[in-house]
Here is the input.
Amino acid sequence: MEITSLFRENIRQMAPYSTARDEYQGELGIYLDANENPFDNGFNRYPDPHNKRIRAKIASMRGVPADRIFVGGNGSDEPIDLLFRVFCEPRQDEAISIAPSYGMYRVAAETNCVRLVEAPLSQDFALDSADFLSRVTPQMKLAFLCSPNNPSANLLDPAEVEKVIRGFSGIVVLDEAYIDFAEHEGFLPRLAEFPNLVVLQTLSKAWGMAGIRIGFAFAAPEIVAAMERIKYPYSVNVITERLVLRELEREAVRREQIAVLVGERKKLVEALERIPLIRHVFPSDANFVLVRVDEPREVYDRLIGRGIIVRDRSRIAGCEGCLRLTVGTPEENAALTDALRNIDRPFSGPVPVLSPRRCATVSRRSRETEITATLDLDNTTPSHISTGLGFFDHMLDQIVHHGGFSLQLTAAGDLNVDEHHTVEDTALVLGEAFSLALGDKRGIGRYGFALPMDESRALVLLDFGGRIATRWDVKLKRERIGDVPTEMFEHFFDSFAQAARCNLHIAARGRNEHHKVEGIFKAFARALRMAVERKPLDFDLPSSKGML
Here is the structure.
């Protein structure tokens, strides 16, 4: 088959948008071609319009030549739209897809003024290749199959898929967005067998990068080249490229997560089959399950009332009465099944949040002090701090303000005796609150920071690795700063490290004692901020040992 004969005439003739960097071969030095701001901030230059580094990485991982890979800047949706633009003359050519299936096939068809014919799947969502091909007209240029299919979750019979590929005279687009969750390897390893096959895959599902929006079309080099000609320049920005390349190095983590989700899918199906409300659970090869209930909208609304969002697919032909349930974490799946079991009971409990905030409340009561602290690492709502020591409150406020936290802390201590117990116990409570709020510490930065303060400088090195050690390299000449004895500052940080289970090294130099101490607390706050910050798309323990 001569693939280019299927292209629209204007696509065959058009010249692509090009840049000077496309025309230049060799190492680039001074960039004066693209009217960019020359001052480097990490993203002042345009990205590579051809995504060569991403293509090279995917080529090595998937065993597909780079010239057969198109990188889409909006998941699989960009390749779907571009395929219509490459192959289908508006108001003239047609396309065909299975039904029910992914709704963007119809959206892209209508956007490009292309008639889309739907070939219904069987009652159990099986593909009948003979029936599908019988609906093909001479005007049809594109055929869309989705396997595992969305919303039915089942893998289409590979033998039936192959019959469609061989029997269709146009381009067959096989959407394998969910193939990583199926036992079948899909058709990508066989791409070279079929010149008319385009395989779509995405990083949004198994790879956990839905927020980044990157997808791929694997096809004959001629098709990829045509898509490259008509796509918008620089559709993948430099920040996205960096994140993608970083995440692609985490294939072992991805496989672990897939294994967990597949295991959870099995447990979820077994649990759903025991719930009287669920009339039927369809087989799943994806990371979601389709179920049939008697009153889908009522069930949907009641789940919403419990803070659980699922997808109502009951208005789609072939999915009457059906809800689509994504496989979540074990806790989320347990909450879902519990809600379905008790759907008719009044609900008055707290609505679960999608991403639990890292919060902790710690209270400590002794003969000398009574202290309560509520710490929220992911919130900056106004804080309230009251210990009875004005300068100490001011320093704790520096931790909150420069650390980007929210802290409600009240302390009542035996200040009539001295300041020791109040400062020490406040440090213990605050350290314990950090330890509890951090939880298992997955994805955090772990390490610390340095800070200048006027004529002074403060260095704080912090490690939440679980080992406890403090080093205090600060000389304070005054006996007190404000209402706090200077000897208590070292004791504060030592007590904090004990309770928070961290390694803390502090050094400061300067002429002004107030500035030195304030610099220490600000540097400590910045160290905390860096150490507790969650890294995007990272759920690993920040440890080569695999534990903290």
In short: The domain at 3-249 is CATH 3.40.640.10 (Aspartate Aminotransferase; domain 2). The chain has three domains: 3-249, 253-341, 359-532. The mean pLDDT is 90.
